[in-house]
Amino acid sequence: MSESAAIRDAYWRGVRHGLPFLLVIVPFGLLFGVAATKAGLDLAQVMGFSIMVIAGAAQFTALQLMGDHAPVVLVLAASLAVNLRMAMYSAALTPHLGKAKTWQKALVAYFMVDQAYALAANEYESHREMSRAAKLAYYAGVCTPVCPNWYVATLVGALVGAQIPPEFALDFAVPITFLAMIGPALRTLAHVAAALVSVVGALALSFLPSGVGLMIAALAAMVTGAQVELWVARRKAVQG
């Protein structure tokens, strides 16, 4: 297969892999549009929020704190804390995309959402032979159905949100999204151990404000995963 054909194939494979996430992206975006409008933001502010930030969890965090009339510094700090996972995502993708052109890395960074990272990380590990151009094409393919529809869903939610019956329970989209991303990634003992520690830690530290508990749980999970990986490697070395 030629390089151009491989790039096209990677792009359309990314589109196909990203399409199922519309089942959660659309209600998630609708929910934000509804919530932001009810919080008093006008249409331009709602859309500016989604287009500039494009991070659902951070947007909801900021919206809640703004509704509580929290200081701007606290709103920014809390949103940053929730979104610090993007720094971990970026570090994980650096071996694959770190040598891309600056404008390409800027686009990857802007469109860095949970779905794009989860699918890209899995694809890159499963297909190590992919060229950097094909990896970028796959990433773009994943983002094609996900990100524009986030904007559209936000717009629809802001325009007609008041007419959406509460029985639709749009907030189901948030946990379902993360379950769909994390489930397939639990392939090793280290992955399972890290997931368990993160769940237990997040629940135990839920009393902490502004997402601090989530960050502590995430750090504990990373340490646990790394230690389990080392333990498994040492055990294999002894057995070998």
TrEMBL record:
Instruction: Return the GO cellular component terms, semicolon-separated.
Output: plasma membrane
Spell out the family assignment given in the record's similarity comment: Belongs to the AzlC family.
Question: What membrane topology is given?
Answer: Multi-pass membrane protein
Q: List the source organism.
A: Thioclava pacifica DSM 10166
Instruction: Show the PANTHER family listed in the entry.
Output: INNER MEMBRANE PROTEIN YGAZ
- Grouped into one coarse class, the protein's main location is membrane
Q: What is this protein called?
A: Branched-chain amino acid transporter AzlC
Keyword list (alphabetical) reads: Cell membrane, Membrane, Transmembrane, Transmembrane helix, Transport
Which InterPro entries does this chain map to? Brnchd-chn_aa_trnsp_permease (IPR011606)
Give the transmembrane ranges: 18-36, 43-66, 72-92, 136-158, 164-182, 189-208
GO biological process entries: L-valine transmembrane transport
Q: Where does the protein end up?
A: Cell membrane
**Keyword Cell membrane tagged:** yes
- Record Pfam families: AzlC (PF03591)
